[in-house]
Amino acid sequence: MSDWLRIAALPLLVVAIIIRRAEREAVTALESSGALTESTSIELPPSNRLGRWQIGRLEAAGAIRASAASLYYFVPSAYGSFRDRRRRRAAIIVSTLMLLALVSWYLSR
């Protein structure tokens, strides 16, 4: 693998880790507090910019829903669908990258 590709991949990996961490923290906070309905909704802990963006993605996917002013609750079935879509998208991207790497390797021989 070329050096520039390794250097470019590192920041992307760090951003992905930060985003997944924010997602995990939000989901864990909602699940552990039992916020599964509108009546049991809670306020999520403050987060950084990427964390707020990820909460917005979860909300857009229906995995978490806002009930009142800054109160949220968790929807496990929608979260499962969200994760399935993400896995499918990741599998397509990884497969494409592996194919491109294989073609690049073959052509460089």
In words, what does this structure look like?
With 109 residues, this protein is mostly helical. Helix content is 69%, strand content 8%. It contains three helices and three strands; from the N terminus they run αβαββα. It has helices at 3-32, 49-61, 76-107; strands spanning 42-43, 64-66, 71-74. A three-stranded antiparallel β-sheet has the order 1-3-2. A hairpin with a 4-residue loop joins strand 2 and strand 3. Helix 1 (3-32) packs across helix 2. The relative contact order is 0.11.
Brief characterization of the structure:
The protein is mainly alpha-helical and 109 residues long. It has helices spanning 3-32, 49-61, 76-107; strands at 42-43, 64-66, 71-74.
Q: Which sheet architecture does the biggest sheet show? A: 3 strands, antiparallel
Question: Assembly state here?
Answer: single chain
Succession of helices and strands: HEHEEH
* Main sheet strand line-up: 1-3-2
Strand content: 5-15%
Categorize the overall geometry. Answer: elongated
Output the structural class: mainly alpha
Termini Cα gap: 14 Å
Quick one: how many beta strands?
A: 3
